[in-house]
Amino acid sequence: MTIVYILLAILLFGVLIAIHEFGHFAVAKACGVKVEEFAVGMGPALWKKQKGETLYAIRAIPIGGYCAMAGEDSSSEDPRAFTNAPFWKRVLILCAGSFMNFLLGLVIVLLLYSNAAAFRAPILEGFMDGCPYEGAEALQAGDRFYTIDGHRIYEYYDVSDFLSRGDGVYDIVVIRDGKKVALKDFPMVPVDYEGYENKMYGFYFGVEEATPLVKIRHAWESCMEFVRMVWQGLEQLVTGKVGIKDMSGPVGIVDLMAETGEKSATLADALYNIFYLGAFIAVNLSVMNMLPIPALDGGRVFLLLVTTVIEAVTRKKLDPRYEGYIHAAGMVLLLGLMAVVMFNDIVRIVTG
After folding, report:
1. Which of 214, 197, 201 is nearest to 148 (CA)?
2. Average pLDDT of the segment spanning 205-225
3. Catalytic residue at 137?
4. Where are the beta strands (DSSP E) in the chain?
5. What would the pLDDT profile of 55-109 be if each residue is shown by its tens digit?
6. 298 or 243, greater pLDDT
7. What pLDDT is stored for residue 1 in this prediction?
8. Torsion angle of alpha carbons 226, 158, 260, 15, nearest 10°?
């Protein structure tokens, strides 16, 4: 079954990239910008067809794709070129790819939750005997954790996660009877309970019925949890807690998906876990692509803002080629980083 999971992972990863490029394509078309080619995959063309002004192609390598717009990185006399489009249209086009990745992740999670009967939630169902945090001026059964020290609580396990990061005194907000109740400077540390080896906070979390609205909300909150995980990973990378050797590229991601499927108890569990991981990667791509780094969509938006301000001040239109040079340099650096990450992935897989 390993080869099946690998093929499924490659297909899913290819879809994630293709849907990103489709976002650019669809919004560019809607904004009247000329699209010269829309390709799914990279490398030699397996199939291509000219329809109107756009060449549609399916290419041999099923990872990647692109949406080539007229005048994307150079000046053009074509009034429908990307560089001649109004500022707001260019921003929409650039952001559309990441939006589609996030939307795909949300749809995948929602489909995975479609048969759920109930969800565990950060709702206090009760307290262990002797729990010191229960009371009229403290926590009560039925409270739903909303924030801890300003961090939004999406899942029940977020409670212990953010409590473990603090110093024992927290600003907690709970939802009680439909209203937000703030517990300022609330002291809370894990304590011993009879019959248990480890110290605990003494909470019993409840469940909520998976109504259609709850499924939608839970899918949204799961995706927001993914976003937070990506930012935490970036923070660890910047602070040096993790290094380049801990990063994974397409090869590592495909291997992780295949390994996830192989370790699952049943085929149904394998498909669920692979697609759940795919949803996380979709949201990951959404966030990463909007970072203000040259060659990424976020970098293009950032430089678009900078050039717009400069042109407004100087009243002179800048040559798009200079921005193209910056993105080209950024692409070279990104490809170099991807090569290093891919090498590390292959070494990790070979050495086991």
Report:
1. 201
2. 95
3. no
4. 35-51, 54-69, 118-127, 144-148, 151-152, 169-176, 179-187, 203-209
5. 999 888 776 788 999 888 777 788 899 988 999 999 999 999 999 999 999 999 9
6. 298
7. 56
8. -10
Cross-strand pairs, 49 = 56
Work out the mean pLDDT of the chain and round it to a whole number: 89
Distance of CA 27 to the CA centre of its chain: 21
At 200, is the secondary structure helix, strand, or coil? strand
Q: Please state, in angstroms and rounded to a whole number, the distance separating the CA atoms of residues 171 and 183.
A: 6
Of 21, 72, 221, 323, the catalytic one is 21
User: In Å, what is the CA distance from 119 to each residue of 55, 200, 237?
Assistant: 46, 22, 32
Phi/psi class of residue 178: alpha, beta or left (left: φ > 0; alpha: ψ in -120 to 50)? left
Across residues 287-296, what is the average pLDDT? Answer: 91
So what's the pLDDT on residue 348? 77
Q: With beta carbons less than 8 A apart as the criterion, state whether 122 and 161 touch.
A: no
Q: How many CB atoms lie within 10 A of CB 224?
A: 14
Closest CA to 323 of 336, 310, 312: 310
d(CA 186, CA 150): 13
CA distance 264 to 245: 26
Q: How far apart are CA 14 and CA 61, in angstroms?
A: 9
- Per DSSP, what are the bridge partners of residue 37? 55, 68
Q: How far is CA 122 from the centre of its chain?
A: 22
Q: How many CB atoms lie within 10 A of CB 174?
A: 22
Give the H/E segment covering residue 118: strand 118-127
Q: Specify which residues 139 forms β-bridges with.
A: 134
> 105: closest CA among 20, 211, 210?
20
Q: Is the pLDDT of residue 150 over 60?
A: yes
By residue count, the chain amounts to 352
Phi, psi of 245 (to 5 degrees): -65, -20
Q: What are the structure tokens assigned to 352, written together?
A: 């086991």
> What domains sit in the chain, N to C, each tagged with a CATH number?
2-113+272-351 (no CATH), 118-209 (2.30.42.10)
3-class SS at 352? coil
The pLDDT tens digits for 238-264 are 888 877 777 777 777 778 888 888 888
CB 288 within 8 A of CB 105: no
